[in-house]
Amino acid sequence: MRKPLPFNDIRHLQAHQFLVDEAYLLDAQQYEAWLATMTDDIRYVMPVRVTTARGAGFDTSPGMDHFDEDKYSLSHRVARMGTEHVWAEDPPSRLRHFITNVRTFASDDPAELLVESAELLFRSRGDVNESALLSCGREDLLRRSEQGWKLARRTIFADESVLRMQNLAVFL
After folding, report:
1. Of 57, 60, 65, 119, which has the maximum CB count within 10 A?
2. What is the CATH number of the domain that holds 86?
3. What total number of domains does the chain contain?
């Protein structure tokens, strides 16, 4: 079992700050700025969760993802957000990303950090739809660049196997 970095380690503090700043960008729907926090080889994945018997050895459906994206597909989603063709987000959702339980781990590469966090997303749309919550765990790889830390990989594990949200036209 890996030992997490102490909370007062500068790398942990920087990783935590990165996640808080990222949550702000997503809440403010500043998607172009959010996209700039990623490496060119980003992998952004949310596997489909399944409920299995204890000891089955897996809790995601092999080869099935809600999304599996790279910089190209993310940039197209972000660009689409600025058009009239984003019907799933018109009117736009009101979002609040709560990030907690941040644990940071050193990597074999000193220019990379492994970061675990928990996220609770609150989402409301319009005046009549009920609000929605999505709880998930995230495993991130942050890579140091000349501009500071950047997100190189994110795997999102929803805490439920049946998502009760209307759609996943949001970023986690």
Report:
1. 119
2. 3.10.450.50
3. 1
